[in-house]
Amino acid sequence: MSLGNLTALFIKSAPPGKHEDGDGLRLIKREDGGGQWVFRYTLYGRRREMGLGGLKALSLKDARDVASGYRTLVAKGKDPIEHRRRQRQDAMRSRHLLKDVALDAFESRKADLKGDGTAGRWYSPLEHHVLPKLGQMPVAEITQSDVRDALMPIWHLKAATATKAANRLRIVLDHAAALGLDVDLQAVAKAKQLLGRQRHQVTSIPSMPWVDVPAFYASLEDPTITHLALRLLILTGLRSRPVRFARLDEIEGDIWTVPANNMKARVGAAEDFRVPLSKEAQRVINLARPYERDGYLFPSVRKGVISDATMARLMERRGLEARPHGFRSSLRTWLAEETDAPHEVAEMVLAHLSDSKVVRTYRQTDFLDQRRPLMDRWAKYCTG
C-alpha cells in the first residue's frame, strides 16, 4: 500500500484485522470496534514493532505525525523504542517523587544526627509509614488528604511514631520547597486537623520485677552473642545501643568508657560515660571476646552489630512481656528498695541527669567510686 492509504472514514467502518497506512504505520482493528496504532521498522537488520497508542487517543493524523518522528530517528540510526524508554525515565526523574526528595532531605541532615543517622531512627518513620503509600507520588501533588490517609492507620494506635512520621514529612516538604518545588507546606498541619487529637495513652516499656531478674539471668546460660549481650545489658543498666556497639578498645580493666555518640542524647551531656564493671560483667566480656569482629564484641551474622530487636525477640519468644530496656527500671527500683544509694548516685547509675545544669557544672563528678560497690552488689544479686 502507498503512504496515506487509510482515511478517517474507512477507519470508522474498517473490519477487524490489520490495516496498513504505509511506511511502517499499521492499524490493528479489534472486534469491539477499538483499535491500536503500531509502528514497524527495521534497524541494523532487526525488525521491531512498537505500540503508539489506541485509536481513541490518536487520530489518523496524530498517528502519522508520531510515526514520522520515529522514522526520522530510524534514519539517524537511533532505536525509537530505546529513545522512548529513556524519555520516560527522564520524565520520572524530573517529577521529583517523594521517596527521592525524602532521601535527599535525609542526606542533608545526616551531619546533625547521631552517628550520621546510621541507626535509621530519623528515616524509619518515613520509610515504614509514609513512603510505602506516598513514595511514588510527585511531591508537588501531595495534599493533606494523602497525608491523612497515610497516617490514619497509626494515628491513635502508635501515636508517638505517627507524630514522628508527620514531623519528618513536614521537614521533607520544607526541603522540597528549598529545592524550588511547588509544594503545599501546610499539608501536614492540615492533615493533623483532619486526623484530630490522638487518643493513645503513652505507656512505659514493660519491665521485669527485680525479684524475677536472677532467675531470668540464670536462664541465659548459653555463651551465645545474644545471651551474653543481654547479660551485659542487665549487669550495667545501660540501654541497648551502647551494649550492641560495645568495642574492646572502650574497655580498660574494670572501667568501660562508652563514647558520647552511643549514649542517648542528654541535655548538656556531650561527654563519654564511664561504667564500673563488676567481676561478673568482666567475665561476660571475656566470654564474648571470641566473637569479636572489627573490634565489636557483639557482631551480627552478616555485617555490623546485632540489631536492636535481637534481644527483644529472645524475650518475646519466651512469652515474656518485659523487654530489654525494662531492665533499667528493674535496676532503678532495686536501688531504691534494697540500697541506701543517694538519689543523684542512683540516677547516675542509669546515666540520668538529675539536678540543674548549674549544680552539675559545680559538682563535676560522675560518682564512679560510689557507683562501683552498687554495681558489684547488683551483679551478686543477679547471679544469686
Could you give the distance between the termini?
A: 97 Å
Sheet bearing the most strands, described? 4 strands, antiparallel
Known CATH architecture of the largest domain: Orthogonal Bundle
Which percent band covers the strand fraction? 5-15%
Query: How many helices in DSSP terms?
Result: 18
Number of strands: 7
**The CATH homology group name of the largest domain:** Intergrase catalytic core
Provide the gyration radius in Å: 32 Å
Share of helix, binned: 40-55%
Shape verdict: elongated
Helix and strand element order: HEEEEHHHHHHHHHHHEEEHHHHHH
How many separate domains?
A: 3
Return the structural class.
alpha+beta
Mean pLDDT: 88
What's the CATH topology label of the largest domain?
hpI Integrase, Chain A
Instruction: Detail the poorly predicted runs.
Output: 265-269, 358-362
Description:
GO terms for molecular function: DNA binding. This is Integrase arm-type DNA-binding domain-containing protein. Keywords: DNA integration, DNA recombination, DNA-binding. Pfam families: Arm-DNA-bind_3 (PF13356), Phage_int_M (PF22022), Phage_integrase (PF00589). With 384 residues, the chain is α+β, with helices and mostly antiparallel strands. It folds into three domains: 8-93, Double Stranded RNA Binding Domain (2-Layer Sandwich), CATH 3.30.160.390; 98-195, DNA polymerase, domain 1; 210-382, Intergrase catalytic core (hpI Integrase, Chain A), CATH 1.10.443. It is 48% helix and 10% strand. It has 18 helices and seven strands. It has helices at residues 8-13, 60-75, 80-94, 98-109, 124-129, 131-134, 144-155, 159-178, 187-195, 213-219, 225-236, 240-244, 279-288, 310-317, 327-338, 343-349, 357-363, 368-382, and strands at 17-22, 25-29, 35-43, 46-54, 251-252, 255-258, 273-276. Strand 2 and strand 3 form a beta hairpin. Helix 7 (144-155) packs across helix 9 and helix 11 (225-236) packs antiparallel against helix 13 (279-288).
